[in-house]
């Protein structure tokens, strides 16, 4: 699977985990040069507290377009530190 935004592959892996229709990529599959830490957090009742990354690709920014769970509930331990995308990021083969 690949995650593409603004014409660049920002993550690629054959080892994604699908949860609620989102492909979660292993942290080592993201191209870290495109990811900037965000102060944004949200809470999922069954997964835990999500942290976010903003994307910066080819001079354009996409705030909070990726999220991950640094700590998870027991139910979501399979996606701990895996990264998922939204806000126009295309995920596919």
Give a written overview of the molecule.
By secondary structure, the protein is an all-beta fold. It is built from no helices and nine strands. Helix content is 0%, strand content 54%. The strands form three sheets. A four-stranded antiparallel sheet has the order 5-6-7-8, with no helix packed on it. It has a three-stranded antiparallel sheet with strand order 2-1-9, with no helix packed on it. The protein has a two-stranded antiparallel ribbon with strand order 3-4.
Topology:
Elements: E1 2-5, E2 8-12, E3 17-19, E4 22-24, E5 35-44, E6 48-57, E7 60-68, E8 83-85, E9 90-92
Antiparallel strand pairs: 1-2, 1-9, 3-4, 5-6, 6-7, 7-8
Summed up, what is this model?
With 93 residues, this protein is mostly beta strands. The chain has strands at residues 2-5, 8-12, 17-19, 22-24, 35-44, 48-57, 60-68, 83-85, 90-92.
Beta-strand portion reads over 45%
End-to-end separation in angstroms reads: 5 Å
Principal-axis shape equals globular
Briefly note the structural class of the backbone.
mainly beta
Rounded radius of gyration (Å): 12 Å
Give the biggest sheet.
4 strands, antiparallel
What's the count of strands? 9
Uncertain stretches? none
Reading side by side through the largest sheet, how are the strands ordered?
5-6-7-8
Helical fraction equals: under 10%
> Element order, helices and strands?
EEEEEEEEE
DSSP summary: helix tally: 0
**Mean pLDDT reading:** 97
């Amino acid at each position: 699977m690949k995650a593409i935004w603004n014409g660049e592959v920002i993550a690629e892996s054959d080892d994604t985990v699908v949860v609620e229709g989102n492909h979660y990529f292993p942290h080592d599959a993201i191209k870290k040069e495109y990811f900037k830490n965000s102060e944004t957090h949200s809470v999922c009742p069954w997964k835990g507290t999500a942290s976010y990354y903003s994307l910066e690709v080819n001079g354009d920014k996409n705030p909070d377009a990726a999220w991950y769970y640094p700590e998870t509930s027991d139910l979501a331990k399979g996606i701990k530190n895996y990264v998922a995308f939204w806000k126009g990021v295309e995920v596919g083969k």
